[in-house]
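User:
I study polymers; will you set down one protein's sequence and backbone structure tokens?

Assistant:
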Amino acid sequence: MHEKESQASFVISGRLGFWVGGEEIEVGAGGYVHRPVGVPHSLWNKQDEPARMLEITTPGESFEVYMQAMSDLLDSGEATPETAAALAAEYGVRFVPEPFADLCERHGVSPEGGFWK
């Protein structure tokens, strides 16, 4: 959940699952999902083939710095759920665990790998 930013995701190829504020949808190429500021959300690719999307985050200045810092944390080998959550909190991004385990189990996905690379 973002305290400062809204996001729009345009699926270019493949299919992606989205959970936004309790609503779960699957979106294919040409589809669009809006993730408003302050609304918990998640996304995943449960398909075997890669999916591509264009994401617009607004305002973007702070979020861009956050994503680079998260990438640096991963590259350092020091990324853990705790260090990632602490870094996110510095930028107004909060991980909301309630729906997470259920979504992973039902869709056969996991947080391993990191989408921000």
Summary: The mean pLDDT is 91. The chain has three helices and six strands. The longest strand covers residues 6-13. The radius of gyration is 14 Å.
